[in-house]
Structures are given as C-alpha cells and as structure tokens.
Amino acid sequence: MTDLPGDLPTALWAELAALPRPTLSALFGDPGRLQRFSTALDLPGGTIRFDWSKTHLDAAHVAGFERLARSTQFAARRAALFAGEIVNPSEHRAAEHTAQRGLGKDTSVEEAAALHTRMRGLVEAIHDGVLGEVKHLIHIGIGGSALGPKLAIDALAREDSRVAVHVVSNIDGCALEEAFAACDPATTMIAVASKTFTTMETMTNAASALAWLGDNGIEDGFGRVVALTAAPEKAVEWGVDETRVLPFPASVGGRYSLWSSIGFPIALALGWEQFAELLDGAAAMDRHFLDEEGPANLPLLAAFADQFYSRLRGCQTRACFAYDERLRLLPFYLQQLEMESNGKSVTADGGAVHGPTAPITWGGVGTDAQHAVFQLLHQGTNIVPVDFIAAIAPGDVLDEAHHRILLSNCFAQGAALMAGKASSDPARAYPGDRPSATMLIDELNPATLGALIAFHEHRTFANAVLMEINPFDQWGVELGKEIANAIEAGGSKFDASTAALLAAAGIG
Ligand code: F6P
User: Fold this and answer.
1) Strands 38-43 vs 136-140: parallel, antiparallel or unpaired
2) Do 461 and 255 contact (CB within 8 A), yes or no?
3) Alpha-carbon distance 113 to 79, whole Å?
4) Which of 273, 303, 334 is the last residue of a domain?
5) Is 47 in the pocket of ligand 1 (CB under 6 A)?
6) Which sign does the torsion angle of CA 288, 293, 296, 300 carry?
C-alpha cells in the first residue's frame, strides 16, 4: 500500500500526513470512543445510527481535517450551495437539488413547489383513471435520469406498487424488449426522462417505445407519453403535449435529480404521500448538514474518513454493502453520485489537484457478498474502507431467523475486519485493523431512504470541498459521446484497432 500518495503540497495536508496513526484496537482503548464517533440521528421516518468508530479517525486527525475544512472554506461553500449561488463554475450554474426538498433560494423553493404541485396533479389523475387504465409505466432514462427512480422503486415499492414501473436505460434493445414483454400496450404509459432531452440512448429508446405502442394498435402514442426534463421546448418539439411535460430547472444536476420531476415514476409507484415523505427525509438531512459544525456534522465527518483513507492511506476504492435486499441497487446509485461528481483531475479553478480524488466506489449486498468478495477485504493486500448499511426492522414476514442472521452477519463482518485473528498458519491469519462504518436504520421507509441518499449527496459535496474540486460537472463523459456520434455519422478515420473492430462488426 502506498503510504503517502502523490505530492501533498499544502501545509495542512503535509501536517495530516505526518500525524501518528494508531491502530483501531489502540483507538478503542479510549472508553469514550464509541460515543465520540457515533450518533443516533432522529429523523422523520425513524432513527439512523451512524457509527464511524471503527475508522482510524482520532482527535488529532479530526482537528487537522477541521483546519483543512476551514482553509477550503467549507462553511462558505455550503452556504453558497444552499443559497443557490454558482457552485459549478465550469457550467456557470448553481446546484439546487436541496431547493426541491424545500431548502434553498426562495424563488427556487417556490419553483420546486409549483413543479411538485403539477407532478402531484398528473400522478393523481393517472391513479384516478383520468388518462384511462394505466397499469404499467416504462420509464426511459439513463444515468441520473434512471438510477434514482430505479433505486427508490426497488427499495420501497416491492409489494404494493400503484403502477408497475419498468426502468429502461441501456441502448441495448434487449433492455427495452424485456420491458415490452412485461407490459400490455393498452395499459402502458411511457415516461421519457432526460435533463437535456438529447441523450442518444434515451431518445433512441423513446422512439422505439413509441413505435411499439403504434405497432400494437395505439393510435395516439404521444397521448401516453410524459416528459421529465430541463429542456421542455425540446420535449414539445419531439411531440409531447405540453400538459404532460414536467420541467425541472437546469440548476438541478442529473445525478441529484430524483427529487425533481425525474422522481415522477417514484410518486406514480408509491403514491404522492410517500414521495413527499422521501423529500421530507432528505430535507431533515439537509437541515442537519446545514446546522451542524465540525465532526458533529455527519456527512462532513464521513468525508474526513474518506479523505483519510484516500489521500493519507492510499486506498483506491471504497465499498458499500447493504445488508438489505431492498437496497441492492444502492451501490450503483452511489457509483454515479461519487465517481461522476468527484472523479476529477483538476481543482474547481482549473489547477492540479493535491492528491487522489474520488476512490472507486463499489459494493454489493450482504450476505451474498460475503461468499464472493469478502476474502479480499479480510486478507487481501488492498485496504478497502467499507460501509455497512442495515435496518433493524425486517422487510420480510418470514421466520425472524432470517433477519436476525442477516444482522448478525453484518455486525460480525465489521467486528472481524477490525479484530483480525492471529494464527501460526499464515494462510489462516487475519491482519485485522481494517476499517468500516455502519449506518443502522430503525426501519427502511421513504423518509429514511431520502435521508440516506441526501447524506451521501452531502458527503460527496464535503469531499469535493476538502479536495477543492467541482463536484457538479462531468466533462469526462463527453469525449466518448463525441466519438460514438462520429462513428454514427460515418466518414471519420480511427486508429487501426478501432477501425478493425468497427469493420469486424460491419459498422461504418
Ligand atoms: O453522460 C453523463 C450524463 O450526462 C449524466 O450526468 C446524466 O445523468 C446522464 O448522462 C443522462 O443525461 P440526460 O438526463 O440529459 O439524458
């Protein structure tokens, strides 16, 4: 493991790098450690316990990171975020996802409330049968226009979905065909979710879905289409009736957009009340993030630990394991949130970054992952900081042994990673001293899920501030799109390898 990755030019990073790093077992010699590094946060949907005690943060590191947060103007940047100021300089935009939850610039909060009123009207009209019988919604979008709805619906609408939602993101026609096979065209609506309303995958899938309706006897296909977008004029131009265009502001980033009209399928599946609870849970986390200072601010404390492992201990990945089948899509959601936000090589003002930026986010679901990847976590040469997420209340009604064993395993893994085990046989020895954090929810419901997602949004933002990067742009995805477009257009010349692949596939 690299001990000091890259050069750490600022005095504060150098100071942090020079601090002694006690082991976890030494840190737990302090009887007050658990209390100092864990908090039970009471939220609208129940309590979430955030336990960061099994990380290597100690008082000296926390103090050092607090100095870093002051020097990178964390408080001012957080205030700017919530005030709707330009926090995304490369696109000259604000990042107003919190306004969708009721906290932000007054005009933006009012605009969000008006959008939600329209959304609610449409959702309730569909539930009331005003648009005919609607049993299915094919939600077409990709990236931030798909991952949030997919996660929330998979987590919360397992048994009694008001409308069955099929989220289709991939351009691979197999994905859309799978949705077609599950739907009756006569009772299916289509949501086209795209902030820009230009994304090639989404527009191609949308056209094919419309053709499928037509091929199956639906004369007015557009009469079944809802558009969720920040480019309403493009949706209207494409053919969607403006009464079914739900526009959200350009200042809401794609990967932060599930709270806006991109959340329409969530509201359609769960009902408006539950969507409102999701927003309330997120708003409670917003208030915590806005009001608390220093390590009492949980997203900031988590960011201190993230920076410790990434920049001071050279950990190149971070893993999240949900011990809850309902949260099996959370790692995918976090991958976009964290890697698209913080996978950068320049600071917000265009300078070189002072060290590594976002680690690779990965993860899975417990206990499955224990039987597949945990070997590496316990005995591999990579140190992987792990987050465990679990709920005290079961999501199932089977014998209580299921949930008890699930939780026992979750807690056992954190204990085992930390404690390790000596053995005279090197193959059977566990080094231990491996970090983890645990988020334990009373119950998984819309409000606690909203809070959990907002926690990760703010953690991502806090990390960006500490690294002085802009988390709200994503220029790195553009070049691949440009080249794909050039291939589609034909006539471009490529390197020998790419040209041979294209020729083999009969493209171009
Ligand atoms: O290619 C990346 C990206 O721009 C994401 O940031 C975004 O969530 C996704 O594509 C989809 O974009 P849109 O909502 O504009 O279709």
Assistant:
1) unpaired
2) no
3) 21
4) 273
5) no
6) positive
Residue nearest to atom 2 of ligand 1 (CA): 477
Q: Does the C-beta of 474 come closer than 6 Å to ligand 1?
A: yes
> What gap in Å lies between CA 332 and CA 155, rounded to an integer?
13
In a domain, 116, yes or no: yes
Q: Is 477 in the pocket of ligand 1 (CB under 6 A)?
A: yes
- Going by C-alpha positions, the residue among 235, 198, 255 that lies closest to residue 471 is 255
* Rounded distance between C-alpha atoms, residue 424 and residue 489, angstroms: 64
CB count within 10 Å of CB 369 equals: 20
The atom number, within ligand 1, closest to the CA of 340 reads: 6
- The first and second tokens of residue 480, run together, are 């691949």
Listed residues 273, 298, 326: the one ending a domain: 273
Is 118 inside a domain boundary? yes
Supply the range of the domain harboring residue 245. 108-273
User: What is the pTM (predicted TM-score) of this model?
Assistant: 0.96
SS3 7: coil
Q: What is the CA(477)–ligand 1 centre distance, in A? A: 9
Atom 9 of ligand 1, nearest CA residue: 143
Residue 61 Cβ < 6 Å to ligand 1: no
Whether residue 21 lies inside any domain: the answer is no
- Regarding the beta carbon of 204 and ligand 1, being less than 6 Å apart is answered no
Nearest CA to ligand 1 atom 3: 143
What confidence tier does 491 reach under pLDDT thresholds 50, 70, 90? confident
At a CB cut-off of 8 Å and minimum separation 6, what does 89 contact? 348, 349, 470
How much is the average pLDDT of 286-301?
A: 98
Backbone phi, psi, residue 285, to 5°:
-70, -35
- Can you tell me whether residue 506 is helix, strand or coil? coil
- Sheet with 225-229: strands ordered across: 164-168, 136-140, 188-193, 225-229, 245-247
Look at the block and give the residue holding tokens 């604000």.
94
Q: Whose CA is nearest to atom 8 of ligand 1?
A: 144
Number of domains in the chain: 2
What would you report as the CA-atom Rg of the chain, rounded to the nearest whole angstrom? 24
Ligand 1 near 194 CB (within 6 A): yes
From ligand 1's centre to the CA of 478, what distance in Å? 10
Q: pLDDT tens digits for 384-422? A: 999 999 999 999 999 999 999 999 999 999 999 999 999
We report the CATH number of the domain holding residue 168 as: 3.40.50.10490
Give the position, in ligand 1's atom list, of the atom nearest the Cα of 478: 1
- For residue 440, the cross-strand partners are 49, 390
**Residue pLDDT, tens place only, 135-160:** 999 999 999 999 999 999 999 998 88
Catalytic positions: 340, 371, 481
CB atoms closer than 10 angstroms to residue 459: 23
3-state secondary structure 288-349: HHHHCCHHHCHHHHHHHHHHHHHHHCCCCEEEEEECCHHHCCHHHHHHHHHHHHHCCCECCC
